[in-house]
Amino acid sequence: MAEKTRVKPILDVHEKPNLALWVTLSLQHLFAMFGATVLVPILTGLPASTALTTSGIGTLTYLLITRGKIPAYLGSSFAFINPIIVLSTTHSVETAMLGAFLASLVYGVVAMLIYKFGVNWLLKLLPPVVVGPIIIVIGLGIAPTAINMAMYKTVDGAKVYDLKYFLVALITLAATIFCCVALRGFAKQIPVLLGIVFGYIVAVFAGLVDFKPVIDAPWFSLPKFTIPFVTYAPEWNVAALAMVPIAIVTINEHIGHQMVLSEVVGRNFLKDPGLHRSILADGTAMMFASLLGGPPSTTYGENIGVLAITRIFSVFVLGGAAVFALILSFVGKFSALISTIPSPVMGGVSILLFGIIASSGLRMLVDEKVDLSINRNLVISSVIIVLGVGGAMLKFESINFELPAMALAAISGVLLNAFLPKEDKK
């Protein structure tokens, strides 16, 4: 990738804005990441305040390890939503956090291998015919979560269909879609956040919001941290391994973000500071998140979009956004306000968001010109999708270990790609 500045930056990577502008630009990046970063803990049952804490720490860690050369923001990863829900339900939150910790170690191993052998081996291991269908599985696999949040309320432990819930969800969905297709400029970068705000207002008028938790909450409170190594038990230690294969997807996502960032900023970040360093930084941020009980982190396309629009590439601006996220995580009333968002509002937004995730996998197949008339490609993609969406699992009751559908689909895709013979189009 040639190093070239496609568009002259307003602020380059190492330029520092004046204080007033600095605050404004950092808040802009905070808003860009906020909706998606908070959505993940809400869906998985993790504290939103902890997600903001780990997002801020992760971003600052990333900037430090990459020597302040890559303007990137790290927020909650959607790829881990389903594994966190499964492990938290069948075992414990600590199990899920241990799984995220183990997944972060994969980043360190991959970073060392890239440093030693380059990146071509990884691209051969994870071609688009494998990664595309896995991304489709991620989106479709969590689709029932969105529908359940949109349509049902819980009464005495049972799910009951509620028309009011579903109408609020549909209105929220419509508002989010409108923001996606009709708005321009920076507002177009935060349709999820705007959709949640509009849906929340509708939910207030529908009588679905209880403000008592906000009134009772203190202004200052510590985020709730969950430390995975405090309550050690062999059974969840084994089960946590099920989350490791998800790193296959998120590492590939990371590489894609670095390529896009290099194009936007006009610098070859794959060479300087190097892909190995950025992957190591991403994995370290994920490790910190898992040790504190926050959702695993990843670089955010939303913030890359803000960089492209504003042409302000300053790492100081991204660092400022991380600091603001940290500050907000300790505001008790803010965390309480997040907790009052009704499930149909989040369900309505998730219908679109999870669909976009699945569609982005399809888009990868199209953009990379994956030829499904070739039987090998057809077999790989078909097996991945059916195993993942169908809910297949490997379960070993004797050791209390379960490999969930998404992990099984990812491993199957990698193995099929490695061992199926190549063939030419007939």
UniProtKB/TrEMBL annotation:
Q: Which residues are listed as membrane-spanning? A: 20-40, 46-65, 72-90, 96-115, 122-143, 163-183, 190-209, 229-251, 312-332, 344-366, 378-396, 402-420
Q: What is this protein called?
A: Uracil permease
Q: Which family does it belong to?
A: Belongs to the nucleobase:cation symporter-2 (NCS2) (TC 2.A.40) family.
Signal peptide residue numbers? none
Q: Which UniProt keywords apply?
A: Membrane, Transmembrane, Transmembrane helix, Transport
Protein encoded by which gene: pyrP
Q: Which organism is it from?
A: Gemella haemolysans ATCC 10379
Q: Does the keyword Ligase apply?
A: no
Q: Taxonomically, which superkingdom?
A: Bacteria
GO MF terms on file? xanthine transmembrane transporter activity
**Membrane topology type, per the record?**
Multi-pass membrane protein
InterPro entries listed in its UniProt record: NCS2 (IPR006043), Xan_ur_permease (IPR006042)
Q: One Pfam family, short name please?
A: Xan_ur_permease
The answer on whether this UniProt entry bears the keyword Transmembrane helix reads: yes
Q: PROSITE patterns this protein is in?
A: XANTH_URACIL_PERMASE
UniProt subcellular location:
Membrane
